[in-house]
Design goal:
alpha/beta; Beta-Lactamase; Rossmann fold; nine-stranded mixed sheet; eight-stranded mixed sheet; 16 helices; binds adenosine-5'-diphosphate; binds magnesium ion
Length: about 500
């Protein structure tokens, strides 16, 4: 089902007061009231929908596209029946608005449909709803729930959508909406002052490696280096852990870097909630599942990592490594599979410490299976706007007297805001050179060629996930052809 024509028209949204002196800028949702006639029509449509829901039984799941069409036809028939002429634009706008009122998210519906919002935070009754805007940072909205029942209805309807429930006995709900957004709801006694709802919105148009280069999260040089290490010229592909704090952009960076995976690899992804959108043909996405009401049917990360070994994976990607699955993953990495994962930690050394201690308890000797630790950082500024940088890339070079040895290869310099190459050599590049029969100079030239390709995409704003993938695939098939084309300016 496509949602493309269901976007709230931009006219309904207005971001105000962004540059004034308010401590927290204001985000105003402009609501357009219905005319008397529109209200009557909305009422009739609502009755029709209720009838439809009753006749379809418990699992009523309206098909949005069909419903929108039905609404349009109904409105068109009613207006022309009354001898009124209506424009296609008005019909479109009114139908979408009615659709949202019928099956949407009520008060916060327009927030849910704004792709510029990262997060929506409802802290209770009679308090403003906050949003985190990609450009402006934390903002206060003019949306408020003044009625506890209204907020509980919203939370209940979200719980129903994902076939779960929230009540006094299990007052915390964690899950994913149909559009991929992650939600967390709490009610008393878990949240003392009443219900809360936090939505981390799924970005429909994912950030690609080109976006990350443009926003300086990664440098072209580092991206080209990782591109070569990840596809490994077909002889050896790198394993990497992306580490950082909450919301530092680990999953986003992982997702963007996955575009570099050799197109011939078979990928199994394993996540608590599906977030990764990897542009790859050969991929199976696995998701964990909590136990049901009878405490049965739980699927843990570890269950899924174990199972993935029976799925003939080339590469196993674990969304977030936290506990017992770590050792299963590292066993896989030590037996010839490749892997990626994200992990919560503050620096490369701490990443190792966390991996080798409870509850992950991976033996030091197994850690050597990782080639790179990529540190992702979120830097907050006094204006409330934050930015993300890859702050360090460390190579795991071996183990000496039981201590894992790290070699820093790239490091972000906060003074110049550049990611600098701080190492003379990389063990991994030497291995690729040996295995592929190239000199290390040839490998460096190849990295430079890839920089040329990435720079070309940046310059021509080729950033969309499919377009980026097309060029990377072309390069994989015939790199010289791509380079020639760029040289000839075509
Ligand atoms: N490099 C980036 N530039 C801009 N926004 C980003 C970047 N990385 C992540 N984000 C945004 O930040 C939010 C959190 O990112 P995510 O990758 O889920 O973080 P983490 O996995 O570290 O918790 C998402 O809404 C995402 O779109
Ligand atoms: Mg994450």
């Amino acid at each position: 089902m496509s949602n493309t024509n269901l976007k709230t028209p931009k006219k309904f949204l207005k971001v105000k007061n962004v540059n004034n002196n308010e401590i927290i800028p204001q985000y105003d949702v402009v609501r357009q009231d219905y005319t008397q006639k529109e209200k009557v029509l909305l009422g009739e449509l609502r009755e029709n929908l209720v009838d439809l829901a009753i006749s379809s039984g418990e699992n009523f799941q309206p098909d949005e596209e069909k419903l929108l069409n039905d609404i349009k036809n109904f409105l068109f028939a009613r207006f022309t029946g009354d001898g009124e002429k209506i424009s296609a634009e008005y019909l479109d706008k009114l139908s979408n608005k009615i659709l949202r009122d019928l099956i949407g998210y009520g008060e916060i519906d327009s927030l849910i449909h704004d792709d510029d919002l990262e997060e929506i935070m409802i802290n209770g009754i009679d308090k403003p709803v906050f949003v985190y805007h990609r450009k402006y940072g934390m903002m206060k909205t003019n949306v408020k729930f003044s009625d506890e029942k209204e907020l509980m209805d919203l939370i209940d309807s979200i719980a129903r959508q994902i076939n779960r429930r929230i009540d006094q006995e299990s007052p915390i709900l964690d899950g994913r909406l149909a559009d991929g957004s992650r939600i967390n709801a709490t009610i008393p006694p878990a949240s003392a002052d009443g219900p809360s709802l936090t939505i981390r919105k799924f970005k429909k148009d994912p950030l690609t490696i080109i976006d990350l280069i443009k926003s300086k999260t990664i440098s072209v040089e580092l991206a080209a280096f990782l591109w070569l290490c990840f596809d490994g010229l077909g002889v050896k592909s790198a394993n990497a852990i992306i580490s950082g704090g909450t919301s530092s952009g680990k999953t986003t960076t992982l997702n963007a870097l996955c575009a570099f995976i050799n197109p011939k690899e078979r990928i199994i992804t394993i996540e608590d909630t599906l977030e990764l959108q990897i542009p790859h043909e050969h991929v199976i996405r696995m998701e964990t599942k909590p136990a049901n009401v009878e405490n049965k049917g739980e699927l843990t990360m570890n269950d899924l990592v174990k199972n993935s070994l029976r799925q003939r994976p080339d590469r196993i990607i674990v969304g977030e490594v936290r506990a017992g699955e770590a050792i299963t993953l590292f066993t896989a990495l030590n037996t010839g599979h490749s892997g990626f994962g994200t992990l919560h930690s503050n620096d490369a050394r701490e990443t190792i410490t966390r991996l080798t201690n409870e509850p992950m308890s991976v033996p030091e000797i197994m850690i050597q299976a990782i080639d790179f630790i990529i540190m992702q950082n979120r830097i907050y500024t006094s204006t409330g706007v934050s930015y993300r940088r890859i702050s360090e890339v460390a190579e795991v070079v071996g183990i000496e007297e039981g201590v894992v040895q790290l070699n820093k290869i790239f490091e972000w310099n906060p003074e110049t805001d550049r990611i600098e190459n701080v190492s003379i050599s990389s063990k991994f590049l030497s291995q690729i050179a040996n295995l592929s029969g190239n000199t290390i100079n040839e490998i460096h030239r190849e990295i430079e060629n890839r920089e040329t390709v990435l720079n070309h995409m940046v310059k021509h704003d080729i950033r969309d996930v499919d377009d980026v993938k097309t060029i990377l695939d072309l390069y994989f098939k015939d790199s010289q052809k791509v380079l020639n084309r760029i040289m000839l300016g075509r």
